[in-house]
């Protein structure tokens, strides 16, 4: 029997997450809106995360706000957990999403820290369907070698745009985490609780600043 879950498993990450959002975008200027959204977000990141003298803890706090405002956090978290999402209890799902957010925030802050102060340039964009678009950008590094290719997957929910995935030099963080999480669960007799235990240990090592 073909179920919605089995269909999602066969699709790529962008399509799968877009189906989880399940609301078509308004036609017309979606492509231009997606480009402006990324340029605005990049400038916001530069202004808030890349200023000299900002401590790592403060960068994490600032990016957490941006992450929750501009990323499809719940949908990405479900995609990363894959078919195991349905196996988890309500309590496990809730704790997993909290730990997932912590891990994603730190991963993005640490990944983009080395590009602080560089310029982001939109190369092109492409509409993938009624509710998804891809924006191709470069981080221009005139004094540090070739430009870095960054691809942004954007989903629309009415007038609201959210980031579904980011690929840096061809590597998707959500795809990487999906593979890692799936491996942990398989090695622990298919138990989501085992993954949550590992995430607790990992986030404890990160010494995250207080969320308040």
What topology emerges from the helices and strands here?
Blueprint: H1 4-10, H2 13-21, H3 30-49, H4 56-70, H5 73-81, H6 84-87, H7 90-113, E1 119-127, E2 132-140, E3 148-157, E4 160-168, E5 171-172, H8 173-187, H9 192-206
Antiparallel strand pairs: 1-2, 2-3, 3-4, 4-5
Question: What is shown here, in short?
Answer:
The chain is an alpha+beta fold and about 210 residues long. About 55% of the residues lie in helices and about 20% in strands.
Describe it.
- By secondary structure, this protein is an alpha+beta fold.
- The protein has a single domain, classed as Nuclear Transport Factor 2, Chain: A (Roll), CATH 3.10.450.
- The protein contains 9 helices and 5 strands; from the N terminus they run αααααααβββββαα.
- Strands 1-2-3-4-5 form a 5-stranded antiparallel β-sheet, sandwiched between helices.
- The longest helix has 24 residues.
- The chain starts with a helix and ends in a 6-residue tail after the last helix.
């Amino acid at each position: 029997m073909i179920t919605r879950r089995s269909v999602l498993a066969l699709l790529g990450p962008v399509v799968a997450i877009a189906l989880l959002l399940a609301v078509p975008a308004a036609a017309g200027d979606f492509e231009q809106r997606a480009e402006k959204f990324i340029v605005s977000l990049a400038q916001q990141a530069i202004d808030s995360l890349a200023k000299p003298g900002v401590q790592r803890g403060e960068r994490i706090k600032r990016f957490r706000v941006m992450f929750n405002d501009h990323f499809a956090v719940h949908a990405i978290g479900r995609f990363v957990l894959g078919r195991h999402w349905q196996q988890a209890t309500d309590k496990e799902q809730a704790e997993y999403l909290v730990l997932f957010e912590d891990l994603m925030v730190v991963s993005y802050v640490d990944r983009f820290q080395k590009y602080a102060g560089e310029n982001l340039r939109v190369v092109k964009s492409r509409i993938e369907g009624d509710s998804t678009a891809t924006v191709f950008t470069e981080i221009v590094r005139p004094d540090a070698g070739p430009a870095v290719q960054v691809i942004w997957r954007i989903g629309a929910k009415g007038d609201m745009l959210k980031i579904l995935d980011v690929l840096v030099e061809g590597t998707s963080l959500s795809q990487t985490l999906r593979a890692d999480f799936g491996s942990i669960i398989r090695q622990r007799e298919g138990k989501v609780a085992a993954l949550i235990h590992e995430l607790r240990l990992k986030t404890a090592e990160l010494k995250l600043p207080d969320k308040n």
